[in-house]
């Protein structure tokens, strides 16, 4: 006579014993605390420390300062220069205030969008007028279109060269002096392959302010 096989115990119980849950509570809390310490404290501190050690300027925000130490901007974020004696950056769509780093964005308008077409046409006309160009003169694309971030700190060398005569006239400087400053603040492709040639607007405008006009220089010589 065979003995009947007892029924198998269920793998999962509909009503687990309270002791089973309390047994998981301790390991779960320890695991959560460990992950929080590693990802929320140890990892940020280590990466920040390495960055501060190897690249202190970049880790601090690539800040630019004046001679008195006052912070006036960052190499990573453009500024909205509009006066005739300064190089103008490319347009910005960052919210209502151009180059608002707290609201980085582009227009998100497609190339066939009528509003974009009309806006670019207006910018082309304004660019030609402000720089004394002919009505049919070619205009660099970066001079009349915004970047995806709305914070691009650079312009193309062609854009800078077209603005040079206006700035030289506004400041009473020889055109060659302004063009030399453009060359000093121009950067080529990284490793000769990646990116585009560019001119950083903010350092270039700061350099302009350090150049004495011929009138000021002659006056200083006269006083000496």
Report on this model:
The chain has 224 residues and is mainly alpha-helical. It has a domain at 72-223. The protein contains seven helices and five strands; from the N terminus they run H-H-E-E-H-E-H-H-E-E-H-H. The chain has helices at residues 18-54, 56-59, 114-130, 157-171, 175-184, 201-210, 214-223; strands at 63-65, 71-74, 154-155, 186-187, 198-200. The strands form two sheets. A three-stranded antiparallel sheet has the order 3-5-4. A hairpin with a 5-residue loop joins strand 1 and strand 2 (71-74). It is elongated.
List key phrases describing it:
single chain; 224 residues; mainly alpha; 3-stranded antiparallel β-sheet; two-stranded antiparallel sheet; 7 helices; 5 strands; 6% strand; elongated; disordered C terminus
How many angstroms does the end-to-end distance come to?
A: 127 Å
**Unreliable stretches covering 5 or more consecutive residues:** 216-224
Order of the strands making up the biggest sheet: 3-5-4
Structural class: mainly alpha
Count of helical segments?
7
Quaternary status of these chains? single chain
E-strand count: 5
Q: Give the % helix.
A: 40-55%
Shape: elongated
Radius of gyration: 30 Å
- The percentage of residues in β strands lies in 5-15%
Mean pLDDT: 82
Report the order of strands and helices: HHEEHEHHEEHH
